[in-house]
Amino acid sequence: MPGISRTTLAITLIATASCAPGTLLAQQYPSKPIRLIVPFAPGGPGDVQARLIGPRLTQAWGQPVIVENRPGGNTIIATELTARADPDGHLVQIISAGFAINTSLYPKLPYDSVRDFAPVTQLTSGPAIVVVHPSLPARSVKALIQLARSRPGQLTYGSAGLPSQLAVELFKVMTGTDMVHVPYKGAAPAMIDLIAGHVQVSFPTISGGLPHAQAGKLRALATTGEKRSPATPELPTMIEAGVPGYVAVNWFGTVVPARTPAAVVAKLSQEFARTLRMPDVGERLLSQGLEPMSNTPGEFAAYIKSEMTKWAKVVKASGAKAE
């Protein structure tokens, strides 16, 4: 070839061959519909986020993003599905703090929470809201504590996954109360039973509990963050309400199967971040007490590991068991 030495040509071909697979795959990605797995029942905050973000990803990429609900097993059923999926980026899973909690709550999981997944990005973070059935004679957190202490083992609390369960377990440890746990497969079924009076207490996300409190179907007592939520500025934090040092927040993010090419993971992360920066998306999330929290795959991986350490201590202190 005139003008190009054989040495230069060889170097060029080698360089192209060495970087082509991941780069080419990222350029072509997505090449088919994307399954966005939600390990919760429809209607809950994880599902809401998926259905808020999914159509915008579809618009950006021209490929359908199909939200697929796979509730049950404290998210283990869906997470095992993700762990065994093809590592091509066409199956993405929503995870929550429960992903980190499972590692200490279950002695044996059908996957390795670190080895079998590639973190993509965190999506949101937000406190829980303490809600009770209106028939309960407790109009403050202090009154709830007094009531629970006077009726040990008689009050029931519903949880839609580990973050809300562990939030109540932490409350029980810090206040010396005893309430019986009733698990649900999703936030919506848990709220239905709470509204019906089948359980008396719950610590759901603000997006899951606030609308029912605003409608008068539930009574809101506090939120569980370090500071008051912009979505509920009238509600005190648990610290303000009389439980010093109590903080419990939930978060949501996304992962893909391990061995998904780094270039594809990066492309996914960047697109999620771009979507979360859209004004209408941010406003919708903030109105429900969820703060957009996009970060890099490396930053999210480090955060997940720190959460595993944090919740392991809570599981040990509370004696919480998988149900």
Describe the structure.
By secondary structure, the chain is an alpha/beta fold. The protein has 2 domains: 32-126 and 250-318, Bordetella uptake gene, domain 1 (D-Maltodextrin-Binding Protein, domain 2), CATH 3.40.190.150; 129-223, D-Maltodextrin-Binding Protein, domain 2, CATH 3.40.190. The protein is built from 11 helices and 11 strands. It has a 6-stranded mixed sheet with strand order 2-1-3-10-4-11, with helices on both faces. The longest helix is centred in the first third of the chain and has 23 residues, at 6-28.
Largest sheet descriptor: 6 strands, mixed
Strand order of the largest sheet: 2-1-3-10-4-11
Return the CATH topology of the largest domain. Answer: D-Maltodextrin-Binding Protein, domain 2
Uncertain parts: none
Radius of gyration: 22 Å
**What is the share of helical residues?**
40-55%
Distance between the termini: 70 Å
CATH architecture of the largest domain: 3-Layer(aba) Sandwich
Q: Write down the overall mean pLDDT.
A: 90
The first-level CATH class name of the largest domain: Alpha Beta
Number of spatially distinct domains: 2
Per CATH, the superfamily of the largest domain is Bordetella uptake gene, domain 1
Overall geometry: globular
Tally of strands: 11
Pattern of helices and strands: HEHEHEHEEHEHEHEHEEHHEH
Number of DSSP helices? 11
Structural class from helices and strands?
alpha/beta
